Amino acid sequence: MEAKALIESIRKISKKEVNLMEFCGTHTHEIFRYGIRQILPENIHLLSGPGCPVCVTSEEDIDYIIALSENYDLGVITFGDLVNVPGSKGSLNYLRLKGKEVRIVYSPLEAINIAKENEHKKYLLIGIGFETTAPNLAYTLIRAKEENIKNLLFLSLHKLTPPAMKAILDMGEVKIDGIIGPGHVSTIIGREGWKEIFDEYKIPFVIMGFKPEEILYGIYLLVKILEDGKPALVNAYENSVKEEGNKKALEIMYRVFEKGPAIWRGLGLIENSGLVLRDNFEEFDIRKIYPIKVASKKDNLCRCGEVLRGVLKPTECPLYAKVCTPENPKGPCMVSSEGTCAAYFLYGGE
Amino acid sequence: MEDIILLSHGSGGESTRKLIEEEILKYFRNDILEELLDSAVFNLHGKTAFTTDSFVVSPIFFPGGDIGKLSIYGTVNDLSVMGAKPLYISVGFIIEEGLSFDEFRRILQSMKLASEECGVKIVTGDTKVVEKGKGDKIFINTAGIGIIEEDLDWRGRKIEDGDLVIVNGGIGEHGIALMLERLGVKSGEEVKSDLAPLNSLTIPLLKSSKGVKFMRDPTRGGVAGILNEISQKYHIDIEVYEEEIPIKDWVKSASEILGIDPLYAANEGKVVMIVSKDEKEKVLEFLRVHPLGKDSRVIGEAKKGNGKVYLITKLGTKRILDTLKRDLLPRIC
């Protein structure tokens, strides 16, 4: 259906005051990029959740990487945005400017080449992302093991989305009537991956794509379900998402990782919400090799945590746009283009 | 001769002389350069435009061009959008020790052809060599001088409510092609930089229409960056129509995967212009018969306001179109 027809249909059926939360950062970004909040009826409120992997990276984890690099002369290999996330003592970019080796790669497999080309030096590959990226990192480690690479270590900051969603629903700080289900994550975990949450909370849940028409269609379905009062878990992204997900990717992911605790910015420690290395990959596990503790100081003024939980609008944070901007981010929600604060700032959210 | 460039080639001694006389001069030869004095000496008549730019692109050879061609066209384009006919160019090389002569010669040949195509003379230059690891193969600075015929100088024309924003074709091609190349993505033949000299387009256009009120080539920062500069400089708002922006299919799909908006990606053969409403048809007609203007489109409109750029999305919503706030890094999820 055309976007305009979808908007009409939503207007026609929507009566109740509802809060819909999108969990995926790409949805947040696209919703702002297309100005979708503006065209929805006033009784439909969109909230942004914690679905940006960079944004939920904790200060502790950044501080840990910095401490490792400073104390053990490790080269750090990471992906784009993570380098700008502030810990309590600066970011990885700051580390790089101080002369430490911090390399940005586009594919984790590049890490294998870097390690091979510099045999005398130890490298730390940082794995970050949700279920979408974890299989790639898992595959990289399988390759590194096969090739018997000894100077590549690994830090998993990988997180799982369903536990975070459950945590937010359990906190109950905001009323969530419907969930805009993440399309990318669902390609891996399938519609099946959300059943447990749906069965427990019975909150309408629609998995949707990222084109503006797909988002509008998904919202239309959510509104329809809410107006009819019959909760359902619907896959509206059928071209990409299968009922059981991507079994091959999941198999690779769980061959290397198992569920373990993870610290989320804004949500704190959540059991079984992260991916940690299995014992047969422990030779890569930086946390076992250098189990150093860091004392992190939180920036009290940054309200990223509340923004991630949908409790606070970015514009209500005292730092927003005053001292915290995309050029000089004070918190991770302003770092990533998928972060809610950055989306507000770049696309003029109010 | 050795097959790579060494520090001694930049030391000012015999190797430097050989490099200049036996390599560089061979390609760039002309009456002014040949004097090989500390300055180029020539007469200028008329209103003069003067510009400089440094080129540090990586990789130095990319689909659709190379750093040499880019260094000539880049400076030619800065002159061309001001309505200046490019005449003279200076070239400064900063070479990282270890660059192969083969690569250097390919760059020189490419610069020679580019300067001939644009009708400019390379009249003075400099060559320095830095230690391995202190550069990235080769950096080139060029400066250029051109003459503006009096009635081609658009600077005094006032931009008003209702003036139109026109671009001469698909945007983001240089930036996205380079990004794909850096990632090592094997892509089809259509994937290439839009690198091209604009003098053959802008100067005849300015001669044919006095309705052109502003021109700039949207290189770094892309079209969105230029529009923000215009809106702030002239205290107007600009509304851009998303659906009207020409973007080639490969740019669209690659930018989705990379998480980069083509509006922020660099162009090297595009010009963004502000044109009075009455001259719209004339300008478009002119542009569309030119090889560099086939896909020209009106992409937006100037409005009374206070220096903001808005995008009218394909859903009909209106949002801020800000300048680029960070490095163009691909998203990780």
Per-chain topology:
The complex is a heterodimer of chains A (350) and B (333).
Chain A: H1 3-13, E1 18-22, H2 25-33, H3 36-39, E2 44-48, H4 59-72, E3 75-78, H5 92-97, E4 102-104, H6 110-117, E5 123-127, H7 134-146, E6 152-156, H8 161-171, E7 178-181, H9 183-189, H10 195-201, E8 205-207, H11 212-228, E9 233-235, H12 247-256, E10 257-264, E11 268-277, H13 286-289, H14 304-308, H15 340-347
Parallel strand pairs in A: 1-2, 1-7, 3-4, 3-5, 5-6, 7-8, 8-9
Antiparallel strand pairs in A: 10-11
Helix pairs in contact in A: 1-11, 2-15, 7-12
Chain B: H1 14-28, H2 31-34, E1 47-55, E2 61-62, E3 65-66, H3 67-80, E4 84-96, H4 101-118, E5 121-130, E6 138-148, E7 164-167, H5 173-183, H6 199-208, E8 212-216, H7 222-234, E9 236-241, H8 249-258, E10 272-275, H9 280-288, E11 297-304, E12 309-312, E13 318-320
Parallel strand pairs in B: 4-5, 9-12
Antiparallel strand pairs in B: 1-6, 2-3, 4-6, 7-10, 7-11, 8-10, 9-11, 12-13
Shape, principal axes of CA atoms of chain B: globular
Sheet with the most strands of chain A?
5 strands, parallel
Percent helix of chain B, as a range, is: 25-40%
Outline the low-pLDDT stretches of chain B. none
What percent of the residues of chain A sit in helical stretches (DSSP H or I)? 25-40%
- The CATH architecture classification of the domain at 59-160 and 247-289 in chain A is 3-Layer(aba) Sandwich
- Tally of individual helices of chain B: 9
Label the structural class of chain B. Answer: alpha+beta
Major sheet of chain B: 7 strands, mixed
Give the overall pLDDT of chain B as a whole number: 94
Estimated radius of gyration of chain B: 21 Å
Give the CA-based shape of chain A: globular
Average residue pLDDT of chain A: 93
Percent strand of chain B: 15-25%
Number of strands of chain B: 13
Helix count of chain A, per DSSP? 15
What is the fold-level CATH name, i.e. the topology of the domain at 59-160 and 247-289 in chain A?
A: Rossmann fold
How many domains is the backbone of chain B divided into?
A: 2
Spatial separation of the terminal alpha carbons of chain A: 29 Å
